Backbone:
């Protein structure tokens, strides 16, 4: 408030308000100005990197102005805000997105062209912001786009990793990890050196009693690390609303201690302290769907959560409302259990620092938080050892024990006959060592818990969280089916299809904000001109991918072939191994044919992409097999164009934008009941590709929306998985004969040293086939044959594609965010035209 300009001087400010470029001429002027001043270069020294930098800065100026206005408007309105806490935000590139969301891409295109550049080349200079592993992190990024586009007063809170997900190189068929240093030049972040929070770790707890007998806990000693805010503007689509993503970076807290060390000549250890502090936000943990229980990861979680809560509480306190109104002003969504300590931290703030009674504080906490679960896989459910929590966060462990005590007392009162219930639902697992079950803590501390697709939400209600449904009642557990932003995943990735759709569904500014309007294209499904244009768009997208494949792998693929794509993190449950076994089966079949027969076969290109966690041995073996099969098949003169096997290195968001629009069929083939939702399934269908998939995650709802005649479903159902696993382990486990043939060929050394792939084979043959690859293999092959037959009838195929796209409106992340807003957060949008807040207060 002290920094606020006094009333009499404000006129000078208002008169001189900054404004970004308007129109092509001003855009060019701004680009040249940034090249010649900000970058200190000239037209004799302006490469594409410099042009990218200057273009980004010109757009950034536009964004910042609306961003400031949005923040002022939200401060002035002081209405309820949403805070989305996520350890991952897989944002991808920002420039193209900013151009399209602001609606100035055409201006940039013609302006850049006059200055001697192609907008596509400039966009490609940008390094992806890859602060996430896969679906969970990308979901957070789609949510930010929807929150801004729908004008919700919302903030994202995350960590500013110096290294995002590693860059993947394939060397001799093996994955090699290379660090992703992405901060060299990042115009999209604003360091806020004035927004810092000192975060405490370790130390001990002392209790004092005042005259009235009230006991207060004091967390003392230990060490302090400073969190510095870095803000990233998030532009809404076709609205001035521009929200904030705040990422925390760790640095050493300047304390006397360090100065003493420094001055006393202990320079090295003073630098060491600094490096240790910076380690906290140094690197994203590269595991997807896996918890490894590392101390540094717990430090990251508390560091981020404590800084974010401090920020949220500070903002709330400015409005001078009583504490009980906190949940009317603040909704905090926990993206998985990673931020669960926020529950404990808010309780600590309220009882230790603000002096509230336990029960009053706990009511506020429960009404504030809600928790999204993204998996039922046991190895992904977070647990922290009591000893580690005790050491790092001694006061928090006490509070966790108290939360558990009061919770278990409540359970005991309500279910006195069920003694076993207490140990089943206890937040503390009485194992050796004892563990804190973070999902249970998240459930107990939240008012709503949601799964991310109908099947998944049913599964959490009936399996992993069953007892909690009994305890809290069914209303606490809801479903919010995931969604994707059609701005990035249709308009940006597939401009050809987007403008073809616009010719029937109306202005993109309408249908991209109400995706159900896509249904208008179904009226044109039989319009020959529309169908022809549709096929041309797909072919052009396939040509674009074929060019990319040629330039990165040297392999030539025909855009007329059927493109079969599986791109996602490599995981046994996602079953890339089943896909590659199927490819091998196809190869064997082609080899057994006469050259004449082979000519009649529909050519297919099998495209894979995805990273394996560096410590995930089996996933790395899968990558190796795919590449080994590729080098055999692609160089076999018998095969020619009939089959190509491509592994695309370093799958990431910007590569997805090229790959997804080019797909004819994509594979979403997880063992039923294991993939919580999947979101790329939605992206592929929205881009005019069909799906081969299991009855899992959102595949089921996609089928409901588009019709079962438009999807290739196969395999066992979730309800049968337990029995099949039991049979595979204890009964007689017969391997599918086709799969057996494939295994024999692998073991004969056709694809290199059989020993290299022994793990994958024996997982199925000898170790119970936990992911039911053999059980589903026959059905998979049959369905792949059906895909071939269907594709041969191009007319019917195009009908399926158009019909499917027309019916995908449900899967917009806007629908999803509106459901969260209504069912969970109880927040309303703040329309940008109501008041721009300029000159009012802060
Ligand atoms: I837990 N997910 C992820 O990407 N990483 C994780 O660590 C966990 C979940 C994914 C699920 O696997 C997908 O099924 C889901 O669509 C996505 O989260 C978003 O909900």
Residues:
């Amino acid at each position: 408030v002290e920094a606020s300009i006094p009333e009499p001087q404000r006129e000078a400010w208002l008169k001189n308000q900054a404004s970004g470029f308007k129109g092509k001429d001003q855009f060019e002027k701004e680009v040249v100005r940034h090249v010649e001043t900000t970058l200190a270069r000239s037209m004799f020294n302006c490469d594409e990197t410099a042009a990218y930098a200057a273009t980004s800065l010109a757009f950034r100026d536009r964004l910042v102005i609306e961003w400031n206005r949005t923040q002022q408007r939200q401060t002035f309105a002081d209405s309820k805000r949403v805070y989305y806490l996520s350890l991952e935000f897989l944002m991808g590139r920002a420039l193209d997105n900013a151009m399209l969301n602001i609606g100035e891409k055409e201006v940039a295109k013609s302006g850049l062209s006059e200055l001697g550049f192609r907008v596509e080349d400039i966009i490609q200079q940008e390094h992806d912001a890859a602060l996430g592993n896969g679906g969970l992190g990308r979901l957070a990024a789609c949510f930010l786009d929807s929150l801004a586009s729908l004008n919700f007063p919302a903030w994202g809170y995350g960590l500013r990793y110096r290294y995002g997900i590693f860059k993947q190189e394939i060397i001799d068929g093996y994955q090699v990890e290379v660090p992703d240093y992405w901060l060299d030049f990042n115009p999209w972040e604003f360091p806020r050196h004035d927004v810092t929070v000192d975060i405490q770790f370790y130390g001990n707890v002392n209790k004092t009693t005042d005259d009235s007998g009230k006991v207060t806990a004091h967390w003392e000693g230990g060490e302090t690390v400073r969190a510095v805010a870095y803000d990233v503007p998030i532009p809404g689509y076709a609205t001035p609303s521009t929200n904030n993503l705040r990422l925390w970076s760790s640095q050493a807290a300047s304390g006397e201690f360090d100065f003493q060390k420094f001055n006393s000549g202990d320079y090295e250890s003073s630098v060491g302290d600094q490096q240790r502090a910076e380690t906290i936000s140094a690197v994203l943990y590269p595991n997807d769907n896996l918890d490894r229980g590392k101390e540094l990861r717990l430090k990251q979680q508390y560091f981020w959560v404590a800084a974010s809560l401090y920020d949220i509480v500070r903002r709330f306190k400015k409005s001078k409302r009583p504490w009980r109104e906190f949940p009317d002003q603040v909704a905090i969504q926990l993206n998985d259990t990673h931020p669960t300590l926020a529950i404990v931290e808010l309780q600590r703030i309220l009882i230790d620092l603000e002096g509230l009674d336990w029960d009053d504080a706990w009511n506020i906490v429960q009404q504030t938080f809600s928790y999204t679960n993204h998996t039922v896989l046991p190895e992904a459910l977070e647990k922290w050892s009591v000893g580690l929590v005790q050491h790092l966060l001694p006061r928090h462990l006490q509070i966790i024990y108290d939360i558990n005590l009061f919770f278990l007392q409540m359970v005991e009162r309500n279910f006195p006959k069920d003694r076993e219930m207490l140990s089943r639902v206890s937040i503390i697992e009485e194992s050796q060592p004892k563990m804190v079950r973070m999902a249970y803590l998240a459930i107990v501390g939240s008012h709503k818990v949601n799964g991310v697709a109908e099947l998944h939400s049913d599964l959490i209600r009936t399996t992993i969280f069953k007892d909690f449904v009994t305890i809290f009642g069914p209303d606490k557990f809801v479903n919010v089916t995931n969604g994707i932003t059609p701005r990035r995943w249709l308009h940006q990735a597939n401009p050809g299809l987007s403008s073809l759709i616009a010719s029937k569904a109306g202005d993109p500014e309408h249908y991209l904000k109400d995706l159900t309007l896509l249904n208008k294209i179904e009226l044109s499904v039989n319009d020959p001109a529309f169908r022809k244009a549709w096929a041309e768009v797909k072919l052009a997208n396939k040509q674009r991918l074929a060019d990319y494949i040629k330039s990165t792998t040297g392999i030539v693929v025909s855009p007329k072939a059927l493109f079969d794509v599986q791109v996602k993190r490599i995981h046994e449950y996602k079953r890339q191994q089943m896909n590659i076994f199927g490819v091998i089966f196809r190869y064997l079949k082609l080899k057994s044919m006469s050259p004449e027969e082979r000519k009649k076969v529909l050519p297919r290109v099998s495209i894979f992409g995805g990273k394996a966690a560096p410590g995930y041995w089996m996933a790395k073996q899968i990558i190796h097999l795919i590449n080994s099969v590729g080098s055999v098949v692609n160089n076999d003169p018998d095969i020619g164009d009939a089959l190509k096997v491509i592994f695309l290195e370093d799958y990431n968001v910007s590569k997805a934008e090229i790959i997804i629009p080019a797909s004819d069929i994509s594979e979403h083939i997880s063992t039923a009941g294991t993939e919580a939702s999947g979101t790329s399934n939605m992206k592929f269908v929205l881009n005019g590709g069909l799906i081969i998939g299991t009855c899992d995650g959102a595949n089921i709802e996609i089928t409901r929306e588009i019709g079962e005649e438009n999807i290739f479903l196969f395999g066992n159902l979730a309800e049968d998985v337990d029995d099949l696993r039991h049979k595979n382990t204890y009964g007689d486990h017969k391997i599918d004969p086709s799969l057996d043939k494939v295994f024999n060929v692998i073991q004969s050394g056709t694809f290199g040293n059989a020993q290299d792939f022994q793990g994958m084979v024996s997982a199925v043959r000898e170790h119970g086939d936990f992911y039911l690859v053999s059980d589903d293999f026959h059905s998979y092959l049959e369905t792949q044959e059906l895909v071939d037959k269907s594709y041969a009838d191009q007319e019917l195929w195009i009908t399926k594609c158009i019909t499917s796209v027309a019916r995908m409106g449900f899967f917009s992340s806007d629908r999803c965010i509106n459901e969260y807003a209504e069912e969970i957060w109880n927040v309303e949008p703040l329309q940008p035209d109501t008041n721009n807040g300029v000159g009012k207060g802060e």
